[in-house]
Design brief:
The structure is a homodimer. By secondary structure, chain A is an alpha/beta fold. The first copy, chain A, is 19% helix and 31% strand. A 6-stranded mixed β-sheet of chain A has the order 7-4-6-5-9-8, with no helix packed on it. The first copy, chain A, has a 6-stranded mixed β-sheet with strand order 16-13-17-21-20-18, sandwiched between helices. In chain A, strands 22-25-24-26-28 form a 5-stranded mixed beta barrel. Chain A starts with 10 loop residues before the first helix and ends in an 8-residue tail after the last strand.
Chain lengths: 416, 416
Amino acid sequence: MNVKDHRVVRIEEALKVFYQSINLNRLDVETLPLRDALGRVTASDVAAPIDIPQFNLSAVDGYAVLASDTFGASPANPAIFRIKELRDGFDSSLKSGEAAYVSTGSPIPVGSDAVVMLEYTRKIEQDIIEVYKAVSPGEDVSWRGEDVRKGEIALREGVRLKPQDLGMLASMGFTSVNVYRRPIVGIISTGSELVSLGSERTFGRVIDVNSIILSAMTIDYGGEPLPLGIVEDDFEKLRSTIRIGLAKSDVLVLTGGTSVGKADLTVEAIDSLGQPGIVVHGVAMRPGRPTALASIEGKPVMNLSGYPVAAMIGFYVFGKDLISRMLRTVDEPEPHVSAKVTRRILSPPGIRSYVRVNVSRRGLDLIAEPVRSTGSGIISSMVRMNGLLVIPEDVEGVDEGEVVEVVLMRPIRNLS
Amino acid sequence: MNVKDHRVVRIEEALKVFYQSINLNRLDVETLPLRDALGRVTASDVAAPIDIPQFNLSAVDGYAVLASDTFGASPANPAIFRIKELRDGFDSSLKSGEAAYVSTGSPIPVGSDAVVMLEYTRKIEQDIIEVYKAVSPGEDVSWRGEDVRKGEIALREGVRLKPQDLGMLASMGFTSVNVYRRPIVGIISTGSELVSLGSERTFGRVIDVNSIILSAMTIDYGGEPLPLGIVEDDFEKLRSTIRIGLAKSDVLVLTGGTSVGKADLTVEAIDSLGQPGIVVHGVAMRPGRPTALASIEGKPVMNLSGYPVAAMIGFYVFGKDLISRMLRTVDEPEPHVSAKVTRRILSPPGIRSYVRVNVSRRGLDLIAEPVRSTGSGIISSMVRMNGLLVIPEDVEGVDEGEVVEVVLMRPIRNLS
């Protein structure tokens, strides 16, 4: 396939073609202690091995009783109970006429079916209480199994574990959970001008920031970054590093070498390594137009722009969703705000534009100001912005004063 | 101080009183390699030690030239240049009449001030090119310092580091960054009925899930959890564990023992350990009414409900913001959606209610359905819900069909 044949396609079509070309093999499963599983994705449905709660529990501090013993009780006509001391940790039982002190969250004895709150009782002797109020059966009791019944699915496959999910698993007696291993995202930076972080400064050498940015994004999205270093603009060197990357990773991401000029080396090197090769080269988005997507014998490969901002937005558009799909889950929800645009922004028809904006408060309104430096090499624009305004393909831009939806990437700082 | 004296206060007042009573000491600073700093908070402003970019860079693949040499060039009247080979990594310079091949992102030689894109050139001899288009000075050049000028503050103190911030730091040549150490959140569960995760199952024993949930929430909020175990309902044992917790942590969180019944032991134990002691006991919120807040010689202590759901919401309301303040940063933005409530929800006047809802799509609308089991012991309600509807103090509830703002805690799954 001649990689030059590709035409620029819309994001939607790019995603469709890409997903049709790749195989998303089910990832291996690993078993993690609950304390290490936050944010990981469940690899199977989890059924409750016991009822939750496991016992009938008191919802208050008070006395467990048989509700019918209290019927008709009032301050004028208290019901009288003999206090039964519960033997700690044993399956105590209660008979009619007996009451047992229970604290909030602790089990009520077998035979009792309600709890009288402490304030409606009075101890009149060492082992005798008066109860001043009738309670109905079930009052202030959490019944066994009312949270989750034994055998019920308490947690589904494909769930990103939140604190409460870990609590749910713990309450069922689990100390560990099966999760998918993180997909390994191999990251290769291409460009003869690049040097790695920490190299000595020499004229003309530019520090490779893309591998650092994409590694961190990979972690945010739930993958495991595998930085594979820098490759100069040399076809054979590119081929051999890509081959290593394909063997070691579940997804391979390359930056640089995607322009339409002399050195389309990276795209050609990817394409040469297997079928179907490059399936998308050129996406109708800004920034990120030279993005190329490939499948090498079913393994997903992306070639993003070498410009940090374009690489970031490319990975946001194509990498985030891919990692979620590999984990058989969905993306986390993103914060959005409505804000008024401070100046007109043009977007060519047919192109989806990702405009970096800074959202701030002006009085009661939120305003979105496009960041001044729009060059896609300008990392500071991504540091200074807190929002991304997405202008769809069928919109040619937004007018000054128009209210738009902005994806909020970091907090709105200036609350003044 | 008699801890019973406290009246139920609104959340806003509780926060005010609490923050007035505590000292938020500046946390220690630690230096981390960039790869370990994602999500951490910068401990100082970072000024650029060099211009970014450090050199004038080409924005395209093409030939660096002196723009004035191209003036008047056209396909009919090309300008002619002698190709100068750049010596890799050296401070090459260019004279009038010379052109040097540069690839995207690489430096242009001293003496050049524009780049002609490859497609407007043709090599006519081994070292001679024709240029068919005039370029203006600065065309397709990223000027030295146009991203960030040397000495300019590139990153502020109190920023939660995102991937792009790490890229910015890397581009300035930094390999590490100063961040605040994570505040240590000591976590104590109280209750004689509790056993720790992994204990053998015995009648009447309930697994302590709060320490697992609060540990995970602490990590999400940027703190470091320090689980300090379970303490039975015994005043002296509580006191000694709290004393240890105060010494080891920056914030101490206890769950359980906050009801107004017999055993207000935890609140009393906290209050006995220093001044001013308990400053809030009872908050006008649902769930979470028995929440107590304290300052022991300036150190923040919170006593949350023993009910997992109430503990979670209490920590969401009081813990999240506290951790952000300790880190001298602000909370991350939260995703919100507008959704139509499926049934009437009442909220007592003067109380802020946190209603667990499940948001799903119905046709083009989003609907928010309150989760059925509303008991605050019902962890499954937190697992099944994906949203939190906050009903403010001055609203008595929402009507069926009313459109409300919901905090989206996890994805909307059913897109059908």
